[in-house]
What does this fold into?
Amino acid sequence: MRLKRLFWQKLLWLRFRLWQRHRFDQLVLEWVAGRPFLILPQVFNPTLFLSSEFMVSALTAEHIPVGARVLDMGTGSGIGAVFIAQWASEVVAVDVNPTAVRCARINVLLNRREASVNVLEGDLFSPLPGQQFDVILFNPPYFEGRAATPLAQAFYGKEVIERFAAEVGTYLAENGRIFLLLSSLVDEKQILSHFTHFHIEIASQQDVRTELLTLYQLTHKR
It folds into this structure.
């Protein structure tokens, strides 16, 4: 299985270098599940890597109670916020990348979700003092290394997860849920060890050949 995954990783990386890399450097319009998303340069493109699409396809009304207040942490293009807004009464989307914030705001307008989605710029919970949420989503940067560009912040900076784990309990409502997306390309057990104050279970999984994507559901321990 490991050799098979390595083969697909190399094949997809070659495809990216030859035919897709330019889509990170220019304005492109992408479609996800019938919805349009305008992707600005230096913003994570949810169609080139499968994690974002997997997250929004895995989450349903069962996971997002109707009328819930939701936080989409590290929103990027705003894909999570746009899809979740079909159930939530209010979605707050946060990103540290100013270009991603602009991109998400455009996509909220493009998908006519401005009545329920508010996009803020900031480092993790810094723009949210005193707030709590029924659901918190996070597709975090989980690779080790330092981010040299705004785009790289979507991939590198595992210490971000550690800070998120230390702070998130304060912002999660008593009966709230966190949905955290991780990949088999990293040490998931080590990452999850930072969430000692939460009960952890698997909400959904998808094998995308290059990796196994897992959406974890975390709730307060009683």
